[in-house]
Amino acid sequence: MNNLTAEQEECFEEFVKAATHGLRAPTLANLRGFGDVPKITRELAFMGFITIEVYGRNWRVVTILKGHRAGKRTMGPPHGGEPYLRLDKDGRHDLLDGEPII
Fold this sequence. Notes:
Blueprint: H1 6-20, H2 37-46, E1 50-54, E2 60-64, E3 85-88, E4 91-94, E5 99-100
Antiparallel strand pairs: 1-2, 1-3, 3-4, 4-5
Helix pairs in contact: 1-2
């Protein structure tokens, strides 16, 4: 994809695979070897490639926003609930207050 580093593209493709098959979003342990994964995932969100929603028990749901799988989401949390944090192209949002935390 345009303007992505090799590590960003590989990490993005792992999210796309999980979302395509309705699987849980890859965890840090699943993405070892991709470099600084927290930084890369934030960059992907801030660049508009994905949206990350964080639920209780640190469960993450990733929505793909670019490419032929745009709109696909990883599996939702089995324990239900609403996300308390979202990272997207507009920044980091604390959903309890609804205000961005940048």
